[in-house]
Amino acid sequence: MPTAVALTAALALVLSGCGAAATEPGREAAPRASASPGAEGGRDGVLHAAVRRLAAQGDAPGAAVLIRREGGGTRYLASGVADVRTGRRIHRNDHFRAGSLTKTVIAAVTLRLAAQGRLGLGDTVEEHLPGLVRGQGNDGRTITIRQLLNQTSGLFDYTADPALARQLSAAAGRTRTPASLVRTAVAHPPDFAPGAGWRYSNTNYVLLGMVVQRVTGRSYATEARRDVLAPLRLHGTSFPGTRTDLPDPHGRAYTRDGGAGDGGARRDVTDLNPSSAGAAGELISTLGDLTRLLPGLLRGKVVPRAELRQMRNTSASDGRYGMGLFPVRLACGVTLWGHNGEINGSYALAVTAPDGRHSLAYRLNSTAASGLTAETSLLEAEFCPRR
């Protein structure tokens, strides 16, 4: 499935879209043993092996996964280290950057406002942000809120702009405003006419963050804390804004100069001004919070049922993406719902069964492209029915 592109070569900032690898047609599901203590230990062995492969494939010092099952408690597995200098292990409650999982929260906030009648999904961008989306064939009068949510606006993804990459390379810690990111995007022609195709673009969710602020008079972060994070008790999740450090406890985040696998030096990139990600990817979270976010969402605890159906409607994308959620179809016939995210030095995926009773989140402390085969193995080992 498609994956978003790097924001800058300097920051290696990727706001990853739907990139789970567990959709390979015809791939055999990993066998599941019978439900006995010995079999359960065997399954954990498969999971441990998958976690080790995730770290290796992602060129990451460490990897960790948390599995939550209603009535079955939680399981935590980890491999490698959180800090290559000290050898500190990855802790279950460590904070890390969650990248484009931000979009799941922003979509929920936007759909809550729609349910309250404070905006309409058919509203145009121009109605809320007059004059902002203009030029090079872009026209906010023809783009709707629905098209921003489901990635059918056609707007160029600002993260693909080479001039922005050069600017951030020269001043990596500089604060970027949402309006400046949108101006970068609309300096390029659209990829297609609004509604005429589907393409993942971080510009869409930066605009949604601006719409939320215009409609409510408060920042998208404030709205998200009140309407999503607080009701779901996601106490380890935050919107850092321009804050460069991570809350304690946390490990370190790493990337390779020139990209993973090229033999370049491993670089510590833990401190980061995430304003260039904004409403498309600035979220900080924990594994525990991510395994509660999606179940709470799919059970209707923050978004009304009608709007939740919209989140899971993938008809505009040929089954690839809904609104801040995408389906992960396993070879055994099981479909999960979730999102992934990648930002400088961190990759994460969070998924849940449709009823919210079985969820998984994992993370790598590196900048690593999605589509890892070990990701498929991990999900199939945990979610495919026993044979």
TrEMBL record:
SUPFAM superfamilies: beta-lactamase/transpeptidase-like
Region of interest: Disordered: 239-274
Gene3D superfamilies in alphabetical order: DD-peptidase/beta-lactamase superfamily
Keyword Flavoprotein attached: no
UniProt feature, compositional bias: Basic and acidic residues: 245-255
Signal peptide range in chain numbering: 1-21
GO molecular function: hydrolase activity
InterPro entries: AmpC-like, Beta-lactam-related, Beta-lactam/transpept-like
Domain Beta-lactamase-related residues, every copy: 49-368
Keywords of this entry: Hydrolase, Signal
PANTHER family: D-ALANYL-D-ALANINE CARBOXYPEPTIDASE, D-ALANYL-D-ALANINE-CARBOXYPEPTIDASE/ENDOPEPTIDASE AMPH
Protein's UniProt name: Serine hydrolase domain-containing protein
